[in-house]
Design goal:
The complex is a heterodimer of chains A (198) and B (302). Chain A has 198 residues and is α/β, with parallel strands linked by helices. Chain A is globular and about 70 Å long. Chain B has one domain. In chain B, 36% of the residues are buried. The chains are: A alpha/beta (198), B alpha+beta (302).
Chain lengths: 198, 302
């Protein structure tokens, strides 16, 4: 009887571990380097621009896009975005998009604050979609997006504001032509398959 | 004529001269004293009047300079002009980059084309939002400047009226506040070189100063068609060079008055005071004083 319970517990334990997405294999913020060749990190923060008194554009947020090869730890700044109140206001490109054609890409989102504002997530979503289009032009398949657990749900809603929908609610005819986007949280326990609703 | 007769005649003439001179000397001194006293009094009164006028003029000019500097500081309070210029340049780059991506994905018939068009529409909307925020900032900064100028001038100039028995200098009045810019100062925002096509376009349209690599002053750096309906106004402001250029007084000749299309970077105040001579009816004149100041330069953009 005890052996049966022990075996049952063991099976449950193993099942809970392998319930994580296979293509992410994320463990506490670290993303596996097996499945992708380039990691594009989007770091969001709240600096001071446009936060002057009576500003209609405050609070403003900044999203820095950093590109690094999975084989090396160092990266280079690709772009910086600024936004406020759900509007992406500005772009400063620091280098050219120089990924080799056909290489696979994964996104990782980071926030300075533990509980980022909705406008900050809106800027992140907008920045990510723009880089995603750059990747598409350069024929770089995007495998997945890793989002912090604290902002995961809000980030999904920001993608939905950009006309992305969960696979469960999008009609199949539209899905065939839409843009797939797999978003997982950093623990790997939450996963959402998004598609662009035309 | 005998010698005795001559002597007596001489004595008579001498006594006559002495009497006459003595009489004249007594009257002349009094007259001379009166005249001298009157002249000195007039001179003193004139010196007092001129001294008072110079004193009041300097005091009012000082008050006006204080007011001009205080109000000029309001123009770029918290580096709002510098940040707006920098963000305008970046908004322009966002629209241009989105247009390029949209052109590359055009007619692919894919969902990416639709997404690209959607993001382009958003960036164009954002450019208009930024332009509206710039227009609102012009109104806000004008209000701030007027409030600061009036407050500083009224505080400094309350004691500057003067009344003497023969002269009255009225309390100075802040007549006019004019906003403008400094001629020959470029925009603080530098060109962003990574979008080569945009850089070439800007250079061909003389939007960029080739020496400083900064955008030229007071331009509306419109994008190529079909995005030429958007406004990207860039104002004159000293750029950040290791430190921020402080607010300062400047010569009036460098001041250029401008309309409300652009953000203003300098202010010119004009004051007047009336000087009246009370001893002469209807004898008065008006003195006009001006002071010009420019706001502090841009801060470091994050």
């Amino acid at each position: 009887m005890n052996r049966r319970r022990l075996a049952l517990l063991l099976i449950c334990f193993l099942m809970s571990n392998f319930a994580m997405p296979v293509d992410v294999q994320a463990q506490s913020g670290t993303v596996s380097t097996v499945n992708y060749q380039w990691l594009i990190t989007i770091s969001a923060s709240q600096p001071k621009p446009l936060n002057f008194p009576n500003s209609t554009l405050a609070p403003a947020f900044e999203a820095e896009v950093n590109v690094q090869a999975s084989s090396s730890g160092t990266g280079a700044i690709y772009e910086k975005f600024w936004g406020a109140a759900g509007n992406t206001l500005g772009l400063e490109r620091s280098s050219n998009y120089s990924l080799p054609r056909g290489n696979t890409v994964a996104f990782k989102i980071l926030h300075d604050s533990a509980f980022p504002a909705h406008a900050e997530n809106q800027l992140v979503a907008s920045a990510l979609l723009r880089v995603l289009l750059d990747a598409q032009v350069n024929t770089n398949p995007v495998l997945f997006v890793v989002a912090p657990s604290d902002s995961y749900a809000d980030l999904i809603s920001c993608f939905e504001e950009q006309n992305f929908q969960n696979i469960d609610v999008v009609p199949e005819t539209v899905m065939n032509r839409a843009i797939p986007l797999l978003v997982v949280d950093e623990t790997g326990r939450l996963k959402t398959n998004l598609y662009y609703a035309l | 004529m005998t010698i005795a007769q001559m002597n007596s005649m001489q004595n008579n003439i001498g006594s006559l001269i002495v009497r006459r001179v003595g009489r004249q000397r007594t009257g002349n001194v009094i007259a001379l004293c009166i005249i001298t006293f009157w002249v000195i009094s007039m001179l003193l009164a004139f010196c007092c009047a001129v001294g008072a006028l110079v004193f009041v003029h300097n005091a009012v000019q000082r008050a006006l300079d204080d007011a001009a500097l205080s109000s000029a500081c309001q123009l770029n309070l918290n580096d709002r002009i510098g940040q707006m210029n920098n963000m305008t340049v970046r908004s322009r780059q966002l629209v241009f980059a989105d247009r390029q991506t949209d052109n590359e994905l055009l007619q692919t018939g894919s969902a990416y084309e639709k997404l690209s068009a959607q993001l382009l529409a958003q960036s164009r909307d954002s450019a208009q939002i930024l332009d509206a925020a710039r227009a609102k900032l012009i109104t806000i900064s004008k209000q701030d400047v007027n409030a600061a100028a009036n407050a500083a001038f009224n505080t400094s100039s309350t004691q500057q009226s003067l009344t003497l028995p023969w002269l009255r200098i009225s309390r100075p009045v802040l007549l006019r506040t004019t906003l403008g810019t400094v001629s020959g100062v470029d925009d603080n925002a530098a060109s962003l070189p990574e979008l080569a096509d945009l850089l070439t376009y800007d250079q061909s349209h003389s939007f960029i100063d080739t020496h400083s690599n900064l955008y030229n002053e007071q331009i509306n750096a419109k994008l190529p068609t079909p995005d030429n309906d958007l406004n990207f106004n860039l104002s004159s402001l000293p750029p950040y060079l290791n430190s921020t250029v402080p607010s300062r007084l400047m010569l009036g000749q460098s001041f250029v008055q401008q309309d409300d299309q652009q953000l203003h970077s300098s202010v010119q105040l004009e004051s007047q005071l009336t000087v009246s001579l009370l001893c002469i009816p209807h004898c008065s004149t008006t003195l006009h004083l001006t002071s010009t100041a420019t706001t502090n330069g841009a801060g470091q953009f994050p």
